[in-house]
Amino acid sequence: LVTGRGVRRGWLGAALQPVAVPEVGEAKSGRGFMIMSTAAGGPAEAAGLLPGDIVVAVDGRAPGPLGALAAELDADSIGKGLPLGILRGGAVQAFEVTVGEHPNP
């Protein structure tokens, strides 16, 4: 705040929407986050994530509330890899997103 930059936050570069999902592979909780869109040049796009993909695991755990994921994306997460289990085409695939710095702190 002293530098005028605001608070640093991690950023995935994806708009997420909570959804119900069938039990498939790592998707055992019955819920996930559908990727509605990705920011051009953002971390999600760079990792190969696509609109319509469903996040069913975050760092090996079932996804909790969307607010809990946002809370994990603090300043310490910037530049670190975040493993995600992604439901795509009926199968769960492993991806790793390098957390970026939110462009609008």
List the helices and strands and how they pair.
Blueprint: E1 10-11, E2 14-20, E3 31-38, H1 43-46, E4 54-58, H2 66-72, E5 81-88, E6 91-98, E7 100-101
Antiparallel strand pairs: 1-7, 2-3, 3-4, 4-5, 5-6
Helix/sheet category: mainly beta
Number of helical segments with 4 or more residues? 2
Give the overall average pLDDT.
88
The largest sheet, given as strand count, sense and whether it forms a barrel, is:
5 strands, antiparallel
User: What level of helicity do the residues show?
Assistant: 10-25%
| C-alpha geometry | globular
Low-confidence stretches: none
Percent of residues in beta strands: 35-45%
Order of helices and strands: EEEHEHEEE
Radius of gyration: 14 Å
Largest sheet: spatial strand order = 2-3-4-5-6
Distance, first to last CA? 10 Å
Strand segment tally: 7
Structural description of this entry:
The strands form 2 sheets. A 5-stranded antiparallel β-sheet has the order 2-3-4-5-6. It has 105 residues and is mainly β. It is globular and about 40 Å long. The chain is built from 2 helices and 7 strands; from the N terminus they run βββαβαβββ.
Summed up, what is this model?
The protein has 105 residues and is mainly beta.
What would the keywords be for this entry?
two-stranded antiparallel ribbon; 2 helices; single chain; mainly beta
